[in-house]
Design brief:
about 35% helix, alpha+beta, 4-stranded antiparallel sheet, 12 helices, single chain, 5-stranded mixed sheet, Rossmann fold, about 350 residues
């Protein structure tokens, strides 16, 4: 969706955050874009008045994304022009082009996130064009001014509710049904299997319990410590007595039991974690309370009041449930554990 409210043309001021008049109009004039012999856009012309919201609708491959890329000048047009007021985007030089892109917000289909950065840092990278001088150089080292960091502070308003009504899942420790192990206090000196270092329920959650609640180092506490590679492998390893204890999660045990791969009486659960909440939908913390409440109410009531919208936007996840920030304290604890694990490597 486009909003035709661009603040002035590139080059009109040296500061992209300065207060500038709204541009008079956005114009597409005979815009065409060819990728070799394929015409993605052909002679597109349109005029969008200031402040107007415009949705571009079309089938897959119609050129919607290409048009938006041309608007932000991440793609150059083959013919025609795109103008913000009197500024022709097709001829912008480097500095003015960067200034223009700093004023255009765009969410890419592939998101283009930097995987090694936290969510907040990925958000703040987009603020680089709005900084200058020492602040810009500090930001390259991910040290952003407080005012910029505040932009990325968020608060959850709802969490995803799966189709079965579940609001989360739980990690657990399992042993064979005939084992003499009945609690986490009995596992010292036993053989143990995590499933994967990248697993939340199969590694990070039990590690948090070991480090924080029990105060033990698994490398020293067990007679043998292994990684099975998957939840299913950990469960089957315990069932076949290849290891004495393993970490996994309740949904995977239930799934293997339903599939007949694990008899119902084959395993015993000796520890269950706090609920690991499903993903939240978040809003900026600096939003007015009334707006935040309105967003929360709209999402929670979507299925009942607007089933046609829910069928498109909500049914894929099952629904939405009200939530507050305290629900995700367990995630913060996991984050702290992950930092400790990195420090120990």
């Amino acid at each position: 969706m486009l909003r035709a409210s661009h603040r002035g043309g590139p080059g009109e001021t040296s500061s992209v955050d300065a207060t500038m008049p709204v541009s008079s109009v956005i114009r597409f004039e005979g815009v065409s874009k060819h990728f070799q012999s394929t015409a993605a856009l052909h002679n597109v012309s349109a005029t969008i008045p200031p402040g107007q919201f415009v949705a571009i609708i079309g089938c897959s491959g119609a050129g919607k994304t290409t048009l938006l890329h041309c608007l932000s000048r991440t793609t150059t047009v083959t013919a025609g022009s795109i103008r913000f007021g009197t500024c022709d985007l097709t001829s912008l030089p480097g500095a003015m082009l960067r200034q223009h892109r700093a004023r255009v917000g765009m969410i890419y289909q592939q998101f283009h996130l930097v995987k090694r950065l936290h969510v907040r840092d990925n958000v703040l990278v987009g603020r680089l064009p709005h900084l200058s001088g020492v602040a810009w150089w500090l930001a390259l080292g991910r040290s952003f001014p407080a005012a910029q960091r505040a932009i990325a502070l968020v608060a959850p308003v709802v969490q995803i509710r799966h189709g079965n009504g579940s609001l989360g899942y739980r990690s657990c420790l399992i042993v064979h049904a005939d084992s003499d192990i009945f609690s986490p206090e009995d596992i010292g000196g036993k053989t143990f299997a995590f499933n994967d270092p990248n697993s939340t329920s199969g590694y990070l959650v039990p590690m948090t319990m070991f480090l924080n609640a029990m105060g033990i180092n698994p490398k020293q506490h067990f007679s043998k410590l292994t990684f099975s590679g998957s939840h299913a492998a950990s469960i089957l390893a315990v069932m076949h007595k290849k290891v004495e204890v393993a970490s996994t999660n309740l949904p995977d045990i239930q799934q293997l039991t339903r599939e007949g791969k694990v008899p119902r009486a084959a395993l015993r659960i000796i520890w269950v974690s706090k609920l690991i909440p499903n993903d939240p939908i978040v809003v900026r913390k600096d939003l007015p309370d009334s707006l935040r409440q309105a967003i929360q109410d709209a999402l929670v009531a979507m299925q009942e009041k607007h089933p046609e919208v829910f069928a498109t936007a909500g049914s894929i996840v099952g629904g939405f449930h009200k939530v507050d920030d305290a629900k995700y304290q367990v995630i913060r604890e996991l984050h702290e554990t992950s930092k400790r694990l990195v420090a120990q490597q």
